[in-house]
């Protein structure tokens, strides 16, 4: 086994594990922790592809594994969050409607997997499931401040936007220091706010994922400067 080629897969599996933990936290009523885990999954998901390209370790296995992780972390986990925080009052109907999100997301992922690499580097067709799941996580993270009708409308819109043919610019060609800095500052500020609101009761995985992501962004920043 080539260890170097498995490094990106470790980050992908970490993303998948975040989705599993998020579902568990949502089922136990810890919705903020569950939403934060989806955001941590976004961190890991933003790293695995770039690490694979950096190590020249891209593979069909990694691509398929990434899709499986994404459908759990950004499809199944967010739909449980929305059900427990918004749709639970509607009983089985709410449960059934919540389940539509991963169905649309799975279709979106399957369509992405059969598009050409060059096309996916230039733009996405439809809203990526990662972005859609992250938006739902943010809405449930601030569920007390966001009206249920807003979450319902956004949930419905995202389902159809994922399978739409709208062209959305891809960030894959943006140098990571610039893109990574934006993501890091945004998520860092968000996590601090949530940490204050939840009195420091964070999933322990946060204290592992965040330093790794910051170290990775710093490394890429130095790497890009050296190549200039």
UniProtKB/TrEMBL annotation:
The keyword Transmembrane helix applies. Pfam families: CDP-OH_P_transf (PF01066). Its main location: membrane. Its EC number is 2.7.8.8. GO terms for cellular component: endomembrane system; membrane. It is found in: Endomembrane system. The chain crosses the membrane at residues 7-25, 92-110, 122-142, 148-166, 178-196, 202-222. It catalyses: a CDP-1,2-diacyl-sn-glycerol + L-serine = a 1,2-diacyl-sn-glycero-3-phospho-L-serine + CMP + H(+). It comes from the Bacteria. GO terms for biological process: phospholipid biosynthetic process. It is an enzyme of class 2 (transferase). GO terms for molecular function: CDP-diacylglycerol-serine O-phosphatidyltransferase activity. The keyword Transmembrane helix applies. It is a multi-pass membrane protein. Keywords: Lipid biosynthesis, Lipid metabolism, Membrane, Phospholipid biosynthesis, Phospholipid metabolism, Transferase, Transmembrane, Transmembrane helix. Belongs to the CDP-alcohol phosphatidyltransferase class-I family. PANTHER family: CDP-DIACYLGLYCEROL--GLYCEROL-3-PHOSPHATE 3-PHOSPHATIDYLTRANSFERASE-RELATED (PTHR14269), CDP-DIACYLGLYCEROL--SERINE O-PHOSPHATIDYLTRANSFERASE (PTHR14269:SF61). This is CDP-diacylglycerol--serine O-phosphatidyltransferase. It comes from Virgibacillus salarius. The gene is pssA.
């Amino acid at each position: 086994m080539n260890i170097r080629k498995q490094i990106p897969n470790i980050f992908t599996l970490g993303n998948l594990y975040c989705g599993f933990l998020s579902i568990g936290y949502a089922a136990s009523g810890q919705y903020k922790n569950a939403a934060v885990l989806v955001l941590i999954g976004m961190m890991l998901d933003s790293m695995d592809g770039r690490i694979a390209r950096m190590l020249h370790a891209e593979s069909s296995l990694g691509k398929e594994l990434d899709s499986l992780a994404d459908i759990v972390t950004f499809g199944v986990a967010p739909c449980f969050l929305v059900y427990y925080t918004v749709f639970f009052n509607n009983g089985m109907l709410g449960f059934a409607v919540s389940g539509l999100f991963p169905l649309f997301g799975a279709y979106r992922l399957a369509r992405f997997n059969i598009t050409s690499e060059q096309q996916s580097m230039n733009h996405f067709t439809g809203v990526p499931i990662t972005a859609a799941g992250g938006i739902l996580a943010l809405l449930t993270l601030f569920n007390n401040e966001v009206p249920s009708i807003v979450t319902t409308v956004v949930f419905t819109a995202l389902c159809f936007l994922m399978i739409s043919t709208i062209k959305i610019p891809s960030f894959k060609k943006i140098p990571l220091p610039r893109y990574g800095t934006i993501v890091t500052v945004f998520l860092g500020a968000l996590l601090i706010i949530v940490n204050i609101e939840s009195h420091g009761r964070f999933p322990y995985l946060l204290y592992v994922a965040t330093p790794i992501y910051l170290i990775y962004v710093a490394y890429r920043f130095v790497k890009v400067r050296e190549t200039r």
